[in-house]
Amino acid sequence: MFPLIRNRRLRASESIRRLVRETTITPDDFLVPLFVVEGKGIKEEIPSMPNYYRMSLDYLEKEVKELWEMGFCAVLLFVKVADELKDNTGKEALNPDGLMQRSIKAVKNACPQMLVMTDVALDPFSSYGHDGIVVEGEILNDETSEVLAEMSISHAQAGADFVAPSDMMDGRILTIREALEDEGFHNTGIMSYSAKYASAYYGPFRDALDSAPVDIADVPKDKKTYQMDYANRFEAIRETQMDVDEGADIVMVKPGLPYLDIVREIKNEVDVPVAVYQVSGEYAMVKAAAEKGWLDHDAVMLEQLTAIKRAGANIIASYFAKDAARLLF
Ligand code: PBG
To answer: Does the CB atom of residue 246 touch ligand 1 within 6 A?
Structure first.
């Protein structure tokens, strides 16, 4: 057809490129992860996540107000738990006055309209650093799901809008959904980490929360018996379909950039919103390369976020949210 059709006409100026652009990023796309610590007046940078912080509740309130002002509408909460409060069953996770429960209330107090999602998993509360109860080297499935259901109710009671189970136990979405219904939390949603891979990209997050699996006898050194093998594709669809059938309102693929083939496939398979978690290691890589002067931070960040959305993400959980806001909105 050349020269009748010349694709470069649609690229000839910034204006025509803007006009025909298929994918754009807005504050509505972001779920902003926040790390909370005990104490007062604390805002400490996470060494392997430059310009990202653990905050005490007073700073959390300030942060949430600022995020709302910037146009963001949803946060995802994680807490760092003191070692002496950790045990094998994650008892502290159920404390009605625990850090997570107080964090939920703090966010709602500072900014009632901000949507609050909470991480539901045992690892920050586990003395072994696992997402489930460990017995004789095994991660117990059904017993763990029961604790996750109790945890979800506790978060709902504190005011969480959505719970986000990130553990990968089988059947936990149904267990959580039924428990929420039984307790009358019909409108508390579930965002399931449905295709969560056993990934080496979670390293900086585990530094942030001090939640890595511990190196002692009879405790698995990795999470490969519950998180997915990164070599697998069909399994991701099966996992996600099951979570939708069990009552997940939103599903998630995690990590992000190396898994965009999975994102697209899942987007084509299910009709619930699909979230993508651009994880801590992805963030750290861009920050480190930019610090060395090897990559243009802002350009690479925008390219990655756009690629994640182009692949099919309706929601992006990303530590770059504020960096993107600075440039875009
Ligand atoms: C806990 C959880 C993890 C992440 C989110 N929730 C770590 C893990 O599974 O080991 C990782 C997020 C990130 O790396 O940014 N279940």
So the answer is: no
Ligand 1 and 121: CB distance under 6 A: yes
Closest CA to ligand 1's atom 7:
202
Cα–Cα distance measured from residue 105 to residue 154, given in angstroms and rounded to the nearest whole number: 12
Q: How far is the CA of 21 from the centre of ligand 1 (A)?
A: 33
Pick the CATH number of 23-328 from 3.20.20.70, 3.60.21.10, 1.10.10.10, 1.25.40.20: 3.20.20.70
Side chain identity at residue 12, one-letter code: A
Contacts of 158 (CB under 8 A, 6+ apart): 96, 100, 101, 102, 104, 105
In degrees, rounded to 5, the angle at the alpha carbon of residue 96 between the alpha carbons of residues 93 and 101 is 70
Residue from 152, 166, 252 to probe ligand 1 pocket by mutation (most atoms less than 8 Å from CB)? 166
E strands in 172-289: 189-196, 250-254, 274-278
pLDDT in tens, the chain (329 residues): 899 999 999 999 999 999 999 999 999 999 999 999 999 999 999 999 999 999 999 999 999 999 999 999 999 999 999 999 999 999 999 999 999 999 999 999 999 999 999 999 999 999 999 999 999 999 999 999 999 999 999 999 999 999 999 999 999 999 999 999 999 999 999 999 999 999 999 999 999 999 999 999 999 999 999 999 999 999 999 999 999 999 999 999 999 999 999 999 999 999 999 999 999 999 999 999 999 999 999 999 999 999 999 999 999 999 999 999 999 99
Q: Hey, what are 60's tokens?
A: 């959390």
Q: Would you please indicate which residues are annotated as catalytic (active-site) residues?
A: 196, 254
Does any ligand 1 atom lie closer than 6 A to the CB of residue 318?
no
